[in-house]
Automatic annotation (TrEMBL):
It catalyses: [protein]-peptidylproline (omega=180) = [protein]-peptidylproline (omega=0). GO terms for molecular function: peptidyl-prolyl cis-trans isomerase activity. The keyword Transmembrane does not apply. This is Peptidyl-prolyl cis-trans isomerase. Residues 38-124 form the PPIase FKBP-type domain. Its EC number is 5.2.1.8. It comes from the Bacteria. InterPro entries: PPIase_dom_sf (IPR046357), PPIase_FKBP_dom (IPR001179). Residues 1-20 are annotated as: Disordered. It comes from Mycolicibacterium sediminis. Keywords: Isomerase, Rotamase. Belongs to the FKBP-type PPIase family.
């Protein structure tokens, strides 16, 4: 199986205000099977806060990829991963409405724009 990278991605600190719409950027396009809405995906990922650049989660730090159904994830992942191919690396900039909702929503990331870099390792 081809993987986008065997190395944890570095996320550059963004310039300017956070976008109000989700931004999807293919860092590397894969050539494997395509992720479909509602499917299961196995990924490696890193997530940082847009405003601070602070990393809040990373499968790389745990030393293993993770597999889950897309329908159980935040809307930004449900919308941003389908169409991606195995072996690819994609950057998602996700505004609060597609992440953990507005500030005061009860989650520590509520009200925050998030950046994820996701390596798609497998689909089912």
């Amino acid at each position: 199986m081809v993987v986008a990278s065997d190395k944890k991605p570095e996320i550059e600190f963004p310039d300017g205000p956070a976008p109000t719409e989700m931004v999807i950027t293919d860092v590397e396009v894969g050539d494997g099977a395509e992720a479909v809405p509602g499917g299961n995906v196995r990924v490696h990922y890193v997530g940082v806060e847009y405003d601070t650049g602070e990393e809040f989660d990373s499968s790389w730090n745990r030393g293993e990829s993770i597999e889950f159904p897309l329908r159980g994830l935040i809307q930004g992942w449900q919308d941003g991963i389908p169409g991606m191919r195995v072996g690819g690396r994609r950057k998602l900039v996700i505004p609060p409405a597609q992440a953990y909702g507005p500030a005061g929503g009860g989650h520590r990331l509520s009200g925050k724009t998030l950046i994820f870099v996701i390596d798609l390792l497998d689909v089912r």
